[in-house]
């Protein structure tokens, strides 16, 4: 999957700004840079994540299911859900 477009990154920033309840001192451009860096990192490391999965999961889960699994783990680790 390709990285997000600039418009999609701006949408992510808007959503993050609406939903974040913790104090944040970043200005909008700094936040957008952080979103871009995170998106780029996810793109560069997707194959490493895929290879870390057990073969049965790697071959049977769809890309969307793998992304959801990763999101669930991150949310749980940081008590976001």
Describe this structure in words.
This protein is mainly α and 81 residues long. It has one domain. The chain has helices at 6-19, 28-52, 55-60, 63-77.
Radius of gyration: 15 Å
Annotation, overall tally of beta strands = 0
Number of domains: 1
Helix content: over 70%
**Helix-strand category:** mainly alpha
**What overall form do the CA principal axes indicate?**
globular
Number of helices: 4
Q: What is the mean predicted local confidence, pLDDT? A: 95
Q: Kindly estimate the percentage of residues that lie in beta strands according to DSSP.
A: under 5%
List the secondary-structure elements in sequence, H or E: HHHH
The N- and C-terminal alpha carbons lie at a distance of 25 Å
Poorly predicted parts: none
The biggest beta sheet reads:
none
């Amino acid at each position: 999957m390709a990285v997000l477009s600039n418009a999609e990154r701006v949408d992510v920033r808007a959503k993050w700004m609406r939903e974040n309840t913790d104090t944040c001192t970043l200005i909008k451009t700094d936040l957008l840079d952080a979103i871009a860096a995170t998106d780029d990192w996810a793109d560069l490391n997707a194959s490493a994540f895929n290879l870390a999965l057990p073969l049965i999961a790697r071959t049977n889960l769809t890309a969307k299911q793998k992304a959801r699994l990763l999101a669930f783990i991150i949310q749980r680790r940081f008590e976001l859900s």
